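discrete fold record:
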Amino acid sequence: MNMEVNEITLRDGRSCTLRSPTPEDAEAMLAHLRGTRAETDFLARGPQDPVPTVEEERAMLQKQLDHPRSGFLAAFVDGEIVGSTGLHSQDIVRFLHRAGIGISVCKAYWHLGVGSALLGEVLAQARRMSIEQVELEVVAKNTRAIALYQKMGFVSYGLREHASKLEDGTYQSEYLMVLRF
């Protein structure tokens, strides 16, 4: 689904455009993926995980635009993608009331309001789509993200221990969170 364009002002005064990325943004999206994966252990995929080809990314972005119950949103500052989020629902009748989300923000843009703006927009889209429940997983040590999710109304309903294993052999647990409208 193509999400509406929105302009926001970041906490540092810069302008940020929120919009659905198009197939023409594939290379920029891949650069964002590579960059954020290398900056933190809080994302599901790390720098060692495969990255789609430009052609695969273009196809995925087009599929997101065409899907009536999913959406993808990116934050652009000076033409660069600095954050992204996705709303993903399944085409299974019994699951049409639910959607999952994921979010990533470049470290240089943490604490500037990018994550709040992206999350606010994707949740508004979920409401417009009559989704009743939005779900996510978050690394238990990611206290900033947890605080943001709680501020937006998410509650924790479980802990998945040893949810991910880092390259150094340590494990990370993650909270399962849900927001019901």
